[in-house]
Amino acid sequence: MPTYDRPILQTTALTKDYPGVRALDGVDFDLRRAEVHVLFGENGAGKSTLISLLSGAQAPSAGEILFDGRKVQLASVQDARALGVSAVFQEFSLIPTLTVAENLFLGDEPRRLGFLRKGEMRRRAIALLSDLEFDLDPDRPVALLTRAQQQMVEIAKGFRGKLSVLILDEPTASITDKETDRLFALVERIKATGAGIVYITHRMQEIVRIGDRVTVLRDGRKIGTVDARSTPEDELIEMMTGRTISEIYPQIRNRPTDVLLEVEELSSISGVSNASLTVHRGEVVGLAGLVGSGKSELMRAVFGVDRVTAGRICFKGREITRARPGHMLRAGMSYLPPDRKTEGLVLAFSARTNIALPALRSKLKNRLGLLSHAARDALTLKVSQDVGLAERNIGRSVALLSGGNQQKVLFAKGLALETDLYVLDEPTVGVDVGTRSALYRLIKRLCEDGAGVILISSDLPEVLHLSHRLYVMRGGTVAGELRGDQINETSALGLFFDREVRAA
């Protein structure tokens, strides 16, 4: 029988050193049975390092890990799995060329006499997905899934087998409210079995909704552990940042002028069908919808990433239907993709090189047509300051930066050229409250300086608070447009699910 009066998982003075950096410094942490213990902190605070040690992905430099009161050495993820410790990391560990079923059981495939039992694996995958109520085809290659669907596969992997400890690292970053509700129901179900859940999130509403206790980390150190439901939001933010953040969502002045973008009855190979919208200078236009609604696919088609099959696109008064991304970039439209690691950044390059890439052909050449290092350095320093990227990080490889700093580099790339329209697809995915607030202020400045901004987000409060107009996508087309007082949760969800929209 499990002992409920002592932690199921505990650390004492846990420390992790990397060359020149102490990522975790003497952290004491405990997880009780049947609780959701939230880890909260800015990007780079040590949260990901801590869970990598708890899950056996890395070994500590010093300190101890205790499981159910006894000291354990977790030399691998398999060691942790043997104890019932399962982790769902923010960075996916999926093999794109394998199917959903093959990814779910990767490393633990059912075998008989040394031979893989594909039929049995497929049956187990169907049973697992059905139990979780995830609408995924077990035979579909992961490469063909949306990022949100890939997130669901990653979550399903974590729920496989008997669990004593479940670790969830930003599991709702790429899924919408419907999928989030299902995930939280699953967390409650696992919690009821007596398992403990370590949960990392940057979304304050999630802490109150499912958290029991919160441990705040800052600069690799534990700041404190508090009650999740009774601790005020401002206090948590101050513990996290060491300062107060009085306003997360800024008030953005709405002064629309010229029409920048007109999209008329657009269809694409990625499932967009007869979608229309307009965007003016000086406004933030939101795009919201469930997973598979087409909100991301619409702007990927406009930017030229996905092929347009019908319809018309007009940008700054000129028809540019079926233009390629390079042309759109030079014309004054930038697109920040939702997956910064695979589409937005070159991880092996420095932040400086990544930021300068869009401007290499136009702004950074000297009279001989060669790269001007002085011009490059001046440009990257200026836009880095604009997005709040510390100067010490400009020369570092992007792969070594925290998620928040990587997102700042992605924003800085969008500022490298003269830009009239910024398309921001999930711009704050996986970033902390402090960085999120800074990026919102940048959106405010861009809009009030006369640019247009399209904000695509699965975070409904984000689009509700920042948008001057909001388009809701459903089934690959525009289900409706909301303005002014109509931009509220009731109206948006009514369009999400094709229900009658009543005044809030």
Gross geometry: globular
**Radius of gyration over C-alpha positions, nearest whole angstrom:** 23 Å
The top level CATH class name of the largest domain: Alpha Beta
Distance between the termini: 50 Å
CATH names the topology of the largest domain as Rossmann fold
How many strands, what sense, and barrel or not for the largest sheet?
6 strands, mixed
Number of domains: 3
Residue fraction in strands: 15-25%
Number of strands: 22
Helix content: 25-40%
Number of helices: 17
Low-confidence runs of at least 5 consecutive residues: 500-504
User: What's the CATH H-level superfamily name of the largest domain?
Assistant: P-loop containing nucleotide triphosphate hydrolases
CATH architecture of the largest domain: 3-Layer(aba) Sandwich
Mean model confidence by pLDDT: 88
Describe the strand arrangement of the main beta sheet, using strand numbers.
6-9-10-3-11-12
Describe the structure in your own words.
This protein has 504 residues and is an alpha/beta fold. The chain has helices spanning 47-54, 77-82, 100-104, 118-132, 147-158, 177-192, 204-210, 233-241, 295-303, 325-331, 340-344, 351-356, 373-387, 403-415, 433-448, 460-466, 489-496; strands at residues 9-18, 21-31, 36-40, 62-67, 70-72, 85-88, 111-112, 115-116, 165-169, 196-200, 213-218, 221-227, 259-268, 275-280, 284-288, 308-315, 318-319, 333-336, 421-425, 452-456, 469-474, 477-483. The protein folds into three domains: 9-241, Rossmann fold (3-Layer(aba) Sandwich), CATH 3.40.50.300; 247-332 and 421-435 and 452-504, P-loop containing nucleotide triphosphate hydrolases (Rossmann fold); 340-418, no CATH class. Strands 6-9-10-3-11-12 form a six-stranded mixed β-sheet, sandwiched between helices. The termini are far apart. Residues 500-504 have low confidence and may be disordered.
